[in-house]
# Entry
Amino acid sequence: IAIGRCYKTLGATESAQKYYEEALQIFDAIGAKPSKAQALNSLAVLALDNRNWADFEVYTKAAKDIYSGLESKRELAVMDYNFGQYMLMQHKYPEAKESYQQALESFKAGGDRVAEGRVLGALGLLEYFLNRPQQALQFYEQAQKVANETGSKEALWESHLGLGKCYKRLGLTDMALSHLMQAVENVEKERGQLTKDSFKTNNLNERTDSFHELIDLFVRLNRPYDALAIAEKGRARAFLDMLSGRKTGPAIETFSTPLAS
# Structure
């Protein structure tokens, strides 16, 4: 499983799936139920990342059946969170909210602050999709507080991006600019700590939203040179389309990364 996750981090999904499946076969053969469920959930997360809905449902059900029998509360909360992500991607917002809230209650009860922060960020994104930026701000602010307390870089980046998008939608450009620039700065810091180009490329691919949103804001503020500087820094391909008015839609919608048990 660990090797599979390394390949997943590199963006090599086929290799990741190969190792997850091998782990699943081994754990199934020796009757190691908790490890088998972990392998199943890893495959479910990979399927969710790849928008492979059918495989996600199959792996999720199999993992959840095992965890339910073992009464593994933390792992079941992870499954609730991931199912909320699935519902969000399907635009089934009431179902997503229900799953997130179940996960949040479980993580709070178990004292898992890092996971709690991630769910708060997901609830913020849900409210943003429902065009309720004021409500989204409340969740993102809570998520940012938890991220600062726990030192979670992923959650901190997501909260800055979410806050920036909400303030931009509300027309509060100074606040939006501050948070979006912080989100981009966080990406740059994280990339600076990576040594291999393959890690850097995958890290950037997963964080393009912050560059897209900041470029879009600079263009709206008639600051094309600042937009160009960010585009060059992030290699954001949307830049020329934005300047020429050929932007085909909003910046890519981002989802909180699914949790793996």
